[in-house]
Amino acid sequence: MEPGEPDSGTPDAGQPDGGAPDAGAPDAGEPDAGAGDGGTFLSEVPLWQVEHDPAHATGCFGRSIALGDVNGDGQRDLVVAAPPCLSLTRDPGRVSLFAGEAPYFSTQGVTAVMDWRNANSRTNGNRMTVSTGNVDGDDFADVLVSGQYGALVFKGQADLASVFTEPAFVVPGGGVYNNAVFADVNGDGLDDVVSVRGLAVSVFLATPGAPGGPFTLVERAEPLYTGSVRRAGDVDGDGAQDLVLSSSMGDGYSLVPGCKSGSPGPCEGGLAAQPFWTVGSQSLSLFPDLNGDGVPERFTGPGGGTVRLHLSEAGGGYASAPTWSAMGDPVFANFGSSITSVGDVDGDGQRQDFVVGSDGRLYFYSPAEGVSSALNPVWSWPRADVLPQGYEGFNRFAVIPPGDLNGDGFDDLVAGLAPPTGLVGGPAGRVVILGGGQVPAEPATAPYLPPVAGCGLTLDPEHGKADLAVDADVLARTLYVERRTFAADSCEILEGCVPAPGERRLLRFSTSIQNLGSAAAVVPGWDERPDLYIWDECHGHDHLTNFAQYALRDAQGNEVVEGRKQGFYLIDYQRQCDDAAPYLLSFDRMSISVGWTDIYVADIPCQWIDITDLTDGTYSLRVGVDEQDIIEEADVLPNEAILNVRIQGDSVTVVP
């Protein structure tokens, strides 16, 4: 076994997300071995877990994780990144090491505050990821910590508490970076560092013991630009690791081979001079060979939670028609944000299992023999299709397949669960081990995903009109009550989302705004209608104000309490229809394209109605959008959704 393994925190190949995933609330009981017959079954209860440090108030623990034998004792250790939850903070982030202790890891880690060795006044821990590798051939896995403001290599050693004391190598340059990975691009058995600073790619070959230092830059005659870099494995079988580079706009990907001595093609800057292939796509994940030709398969998609599997073809290239497609559940948006091969988790003898991440849910697939169009998930974490009361939040999953950790014959999963960047403040996050096992007989129905189907849309960008609606199903399946305490100087107080500091009782829900018209829903810009916008000090940009209205009404139709969410920023977030318009990221005007939705997930700030002073009982929950006619609409569909709900203490139930 290599002392270092690929990390799970590689840059997202999809669009920027705005929610967060969850594996269910932590359970205080003992891990469940399944049914009483002594069998081992999949369960929502983790076999092992470690929580975030409450003292790291701004941190999102577990956003990136890695495994490797850092202290050289023969057991893999767990490396956990805790970058800042919000991007405007100056928190440099923290990195923790948990020693391997059979069968899992110690729950007492050693933690270091990152020093990025960067003089930029904005330096913080944004985009922080961790990975492990071996840069000098010794018995210790080394650690690469990468972020927006640097990339540093730390040597493994017996004393874990000393690992992050001083870096062995700092990628030079300063200023703003993007990301970096370990990859043996020249096939010499040592991991090199491939860094993206700004948009420029640099390759630093491992040269242990060399007079010039442990890494040597490979000069380029012409610059190579990318939005991010990821390891792809040795796709062409030449012994050198290959890379996936994204386009600077995130709408395409290229497979760039490594370059070793004797490679048939020309090299440039430590990599092949030409990509092996390029594909236009909003997302990309490579998957181990399924059809026996030795070439990895390719998951691509148009973004917004739609994923398509294309198999490699014998003559080279990939099939134009997908073998399998799936569309995500808008309750758990951004389906396909990660796709990870995980071995044989359910013990059926087939090692083609994979998990698909989304905001708030991890879906488990177990193909019996290859992947077909009829494939559905057989399990998920959490298992329910609705949010539970007291919901943990829409955490994003970072998954590593460690194999069978506890020797029960089923491969397990190590998963970091943390909010994605920019929407939810800390402290937050945890790392869990999800045990493998047989799929339980109940529930008998598969985790919900909508069918891959069109909506009968007619796109007419020139003469058509938008038609907005509120998704009542998403509203009903995301209702929960949360008690939360607010400081007097919190943003929620400053923005009027709650009337007073202290503990408040909140009715939370997701609002999914659909555009099912024939043209994009375009909001006038600030220069055209400054009266529509309000500056948000906490987020550092203008927000569209009063675009949606939230209210509870009594049996007589009287409004008894209303929501106070002020800030909206409309984007293409979830692809609602398979005949939707292409994804559009507009820099001058907010918009929702035809067939897309913008979703304000239930756990983001101010996405609630404060019910602290409300008497328990039955009410009508009403959510309306664009009732000031900011957007010119066809007005075929209603701009509101109304649900009858029963509120009792810390629970809410939808009633007829």
TrEMBL record:
InterPro entries associated with the record: FG-GAP, Int_alpha_beta-p, Integrin_alpha_N, LOX-like_protein, Lysyl_oxidase
Keywords assigned: Glycoprotein, Repeat, Signal
GO cellular component terms, A-Z: extracellular space
Compositional bias per record (Low complexity), positions renumbered to this chain: 11-34
Gene3D superfamilies in alphabetical order: Integrin alpha, N-terminal
A molecular-function term among this protein's GO annotations: protein-lysine 6-oxidase activity
The keyword Glycoprotein is annotated on this UniProt entry: yes
Region (Disordered) residue spans: 1-41
Cross-referenced SUPFAM superfamilies: Integrin alpha N-terminal domain (SSF69318)
PANTHER family in the record: LYSYL OXIDASE-LIKE-RELATED
Name of the protein: FG-GAP repeat protein
Provenance organism: Myxococcus xanthus
